[in-house]
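User: Can you fold this complex?
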Amino acid sequence: MSQVLAPILPVLAAIGLMLANGVVLIYMLRKVLGHLHLRLGPVHVGPKGVVQTTADVLKLLSKEDVKPNGVDRWMYVLAPVIVFVPSLMAYAALPFSETLRITRLDTGLLYTFAVLSVVPLGVIMAGWSSANKYALIGALRAAAQQVAYEVPLLLSVLPVVMIVGSMDLAEIVAFQTGVWLGVVPRWFVVLLIPSFVIFMIAALCELNQTPFDMSEAESELVSGFATEYSSMKFGLIFLSEFSNSFVISALAVTLFFGGWTLPFVPDSVLAPIAPVVFVLKTYIGIFVFMWIRGTLPRVRIDHLMNLGWKWLIPISLAWLMLVGVVVKLVAPGGVA
Amino acid sequence: MASDYVVLGTFVLVGVVFVMVTVTLSNLLSHQRPSFEKGRIYECGVEPIGPPWVQFRIGYYVYALLFVVFDIETVFLYPWAVVFGRMGPFILVEMAVFVGILVLGLLYAWKEGALTWR
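Assistant: Here's the predicted assembly.
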């Protein structure tokens, strides 16, 4: 019995975390955007509207599942699965603390990027099968932009891997413990600011977040690729979208902000609260995403493609070369 | 190590089951009353004109091809980055050759106008 349960329990934990993230993040998004717009956001359901999203989820669950005429039946039903499952799998390698993680993969970083890159496939399937021109345009825009920014996203992380010499996310965090000169945390954001900036821009684009949200530009495409989806299928697509922003932010924290560690805090104090530190840092990252979303207008698609292909890729390649040369000059025999 | 991949396999299975269960549950809980008008494709209330699967601009296809090339080259860079610290300075030359070919390809695509959104 325990033989069978052992692999299932972590997956159930991941699903629980994903649902909790979805509920909290939607409430947080509405509150943050509301206050950025000088509104209040949700206030009616529960104190300060905290149970608003829970009520919304229950409402979605009890909504009629409208089946549009003329859709590509199989693809239409399969698309939410292809969108949802990879974003669930992305939790598998995240290191919440030294001991708390679902699996320890040597290739954790590459694995997380790999599963996240399956999501656009589901998006294209959803848009194509919907038999709706808005959905089709939205899906192709999403594909084009996620494809354009996948390359700089992967390239921007390479310097971190070069310096640490491992793709294991826990080792990357362990490398960043301690301080330089007694004051500066040994975080990669200090050492590799260009990498971090490229990572952030590319991550916003991968998440279809404003200023790069052409794929579901409400004012022109209704709801983009998800226009024809209703009820729980719609709910699952959006759950995975919110969950992806958690995963990307968690990756940013792991790679550039020292993961579960804090500078100046001894290990004995840190050990019990490490997962809390990790989640808090991640939520700060998500707050920054929301802040950007509430501040910047949408960019035009040709500007977006030019930024990706003509600026970010050459810059990240040049930066990669520079880091390589500097690392070999400073530490010819290896860093660690 | 093998057990890690068992967990990943479980992720796929449980994920698929979770989607099926929630969608079925929602179908059981909700009141289904389909009608032709309700199932009409939503294009802001206007009658859809022509087939939904319209011909699409070729630009997307060119970008997709470029992406396949660059993404695969990037994946090749990862194992190189892992061993970077442990190898001698010659690894820099190897990288320069590889990245150089990558940049040449990018410049060629740029010159041919593949990176211009029309």
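DSSP finds 13 helices and two strands in chain A. The first strand of chain A starts at residue 179 and ends at 180.
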